[in-house]
Amino acid sequence: MSDIELQRLNMEVVRLTRERDELRRVNRRLDKSLEVALKNASQDHLSGFLNRRAGQATFHVEIGRGLREQTTTALLVLDLDGFKRVNDSLGHDHGDKLLARIAQGMRTVLREYDHPIRWGGDEFCIILPNTGIKRAEAVARKVLSAVRQSAADVDLVVTASCGIAASDESQVAALLADLNLPEGRITGLNGDTYSRADVVETAISRLQRFLFKMADLRCYCAKQRRGADIEVSCENCGGCDEMQIPCEQTRERERIKNYFWREDGSKWIPRSPDRAMGH
Length: 279
What we know:
By secondary structure, this protein is an alpha+beta fold. The chain is built from nine helices and seven strands. A hairpin with a 2-residue loop joins strand 2 (115-120) and strand 3. Helix 2 (52-69) crosses helix 7 (196-224) and helix 4 (92-108) packs across helix 5 (133-150). The longest helix has 40 residues, at 3-42. The radius of gyration is 25 Å and the shape is flat. The relative contact order is 0.11.
């Protein structure tokens, strides 16, 4: 190879190296932009928590993990008490800053792998993987204490009510009684047998719906009973019975026992009458 050919070859290598380095820089910028976009799509900008859509997806994943690993998943539903008065009296800017402080205080008492969610407005949910009902109650009291302390230095009294539900409650066994998870079988209304994946999806969907509805109902009970200084409601609360208020949540609790997820994921369809709860 002549010197001229060798020189041309070296120049080509230099050119290709520069193009490679430039492509790497572009890819790094694209990766960073994608990371920011995904974060903005899943994160609530005010609290730094997961937003509602990302929270629902994460809840689904954590329940599925709990079923596979045979661990318990708990959910807290929190509602700040009378926070509308803060916005009305001090303005929404001050209210937003206070919400950010409250979220920061809540984060300090949670584990790294817990999932706090800003459900909307002054409502929050917290997913607690590998946590039973008793442990979830202890966590809830820490969270409520953090909420109160978050506004202590600005001469405001901010409290919250909390409802708890967990997959180790006694009602869950009846909720999943017709599902054969080890063998992956369930018989539909027309005698169709669904696959294991469909059975697992059915269990996840029922549990997700049950846990949220129960925690939401218990949060409502706790808020209505604040005169008795009860801020946390869980499996043994009894508040719903004491209030004697027929509500949609209570009816929904019974209704979801009689439904499972359709094979194509399109909607809920009822179980066969001989398998339905209470029949």
